[in-house]
Amino acid sequence: MPATPAWPPSSLPRLYVDQPLAQDLALTLDGAPANYLGAVLRLQPGDAVKLFDNCTGEWLAAIEEAGRKRLLLRITRQLRGLEPVPDLWLLFAPIKKGRIDWIVEKATELGVARLVPVITRRTIVDRLNQDRLFAHMVEAAEQCERTALPLLDDARKLDAVLKDWPDDRTLYFADEMGGEPFAATARPGPAAILIGPEGGFTDEERETIRAIAAASAVSLGPRILRADTAAVAAISIWMGAAGDWSMSPRS
Q1: pTM greater than the 0.85 cutoff
Q2: Residues 194, 172: Cα–Cα separation, whole Å
Q3: Which residue, 60, 80, 100, sits at the end of a domain?
Q4: Which of 31, 52, 90, 230 would staple 58 via disulfide (CB 3.0–4.6 Å)?
Q5: Which of 59, 80, 101 is the last residue of a domain?
């Protein structure tokens, strides 16, 4: 006897909506989301989509009315609750457009809980388009099936971020001058990874970081990595050693 296909299928369109969802709720989509579902995917009344709201989890919805610029959907049932996210922050010096978008996208996919842009002495970019970064974060969460978006902080100077650093949150900073191999150092618990700018930390900044009781200088290997590569490499190491990569999917 042939197996019954899983429902809903993983191929269903999946979107983030900025409002709390609930059973039998009717909601209207317009703008870009409506255009994507209606004009690009050509969905019709009766078709199903997945929605998540960053507060209650993921839901199945059915299209009731489909127009060129507006869709009416109704929530039919909850698929998953809000996921637990490893308590990992990424502190990173902003880099040029395109590469910083990539950092935000990959950090979201890898499971980071909070993104903290920090301005260092050698940071070249000091202004960020928060709306654009948030859009990249949402797109990544839609693709990788996260139900909880990372927090996205405004950019702040490194000194301000470190001034009141919590003693219970380990601060792993990738130090090009050397440190313990990260894979052997990473451990569970509240943590943050600090990635410097393309020119590295100044000696003064390095001393300030090392003076923090919770700071731990780590090495990401024998090669000098670009800032965006270092961020993804460090997150991956921590997730594999101390995060949720050992968990089964949807556990």
Answers
A1: yes
A2: 6
A3: 80
A4: 52
A5: 80
